[in-house]
Write a structure and sequence with these properties.
InterPro entries: DUF4142, Ferritin-like. The chain has 292 residues and is mainly alpha-helical. The chain has helices at 50-54, 70-74, 114-135, 144-170, 174-200, 211-221, 227-254, 258-278, and strands spanning 4-7, 13-16, 32-35, 44-47, 102-105, 108-111. Among the domains are: 1-21 and 36-52, no CATH class; 144-281, Ferritin, core subunit, four-helix bundle (Ferritin), CATH 1.20.1260. Helices cover 50% and strands 8% of the residues. The chain is elongated.
């Protein structure tokens, strides 16, 4: 005859015919499994062992049940009959795959924000740009073209500064005086950058314009205070800035040192603006090119 269990109002249970009652306090309700030892007619309830609890997830195993306890579900134990999840498919057993647009690191879901994507794209672009500079032949070495540009551009700056200073006192029109002021400001700034770079590259620079430039300045000074001065000054500045643009383009296209080429590229729009101010013998005063 098989023993029967009865439930008490306080939540405990007992087994009649088993030689006594097996009582459990209401606060302690472990997962139980019915075990019938051979030759024993009374079914006694014992706490389920870890092996028995694990067997709940395997169909057909001893003591398998149709549902898992909440604690087992939290640990990722599947119910009997659940389809097995393939490994390597995003999260492993009991772990859902990472949602689209996120990345998983140490169990934490990190959103793939546009800022992160932009930073990555940006890093790749910088690497490509540095490689392209090397491919185009720009190096740290100093070629003859680089040295020629530094010395000739420096002398042109000195000549333009002197011509601008002379125009402020010798010109008869306000427009020419204003253009002269602009040339002084811009070419001083350009020359400051040039002399600093030449010093780092150990390039010795002359301390005066070329003899030809000095002669042109002397010829202009002889016309000071006359209308002819303004006309000749505009013509001289147009020719000088065209020659400077050719010098700059030669460096950009044929130079080798990356820093010298960058210097030429920065100076070109300023010199081109100066040319527009005096081109065709017409004065067109504009603000300084704001060269830093």
């Amino acid at each position: 005859m098989t023993g029967e269990r009865s439930a008490h109002t306080d939540g405990s249970s007992s087994c009649s015919g088993c030689g006594g009652e097996v009582n459990r306090p209401p606060a302690y309700r472990p997962v139980v499994q019915t075990i019938r030892p051979p030759g024993h007619r009374c079914a006694t309830s014992y706490p389920a062992t870890r092996h028995a609890r694990r067997s709940r997830s395997v169909p057909g195993a001893h003591g398998a049940v149709s549902g898992a306890t909440p604690s087992a579900q939290r640990r990722g134990v599947r119910r009997a009959g659940d389809a097995a999840r393939p490994h390597g498919g995003g999260g492993g057993s009991g772990t859902p795959p990472a949602p689209s647009g996120t990345s998983e690191r140490r169990g934490t879901m990190i959103p793939a924000t546009p800022a992160r994507a932009a930073l990555s794209a940006l890093g790749a672009l910088l690497l490509v740009g540095s490689s392209a500079g090397v491919a185009h032949g720009q190096t740290d070495t100093l070629s003859t073209t680089d040295e020629t540009f530094l010395t000739s551009a420096h002398q042109s700056n000195l000549a333009e500064i002197a011509a601008g200073e002379d125009a402020r006192t010798s010109a008869t029109t306000e427009c020419v005086k204003e253009v002269g002021e602009t040339l002084v400001i811009d070419h001083r700034r350009l020359d400051d950058s040039l002399t600093a770079l030449a010093g780092r590259l150990n390039v010795a620079l002359p301390d005066a314009p070329t003899p030809e430039q000095q002669q042109t300045l002397a010829d202009l000074a002889a016309l000071a205070g006359t209308p002819t001065y303004d006309e000749e000054w505009l013509r001289t500045e147009e020719a000088g800035h065209r020659a400077t643009l050719e010098l700059i383009d030669d460096e950009i296209n044929g130079g080798e040192n990356a820093e010298v080429i960058a210097l030429a590229e920065a100076a070109r729009p300023v010199v081109a603006l100066h040319l527009e101010m005096v081109e065709g013998g017409r004065c067109d005063a504009r603000p300084s090119g704001n060269v830093d």
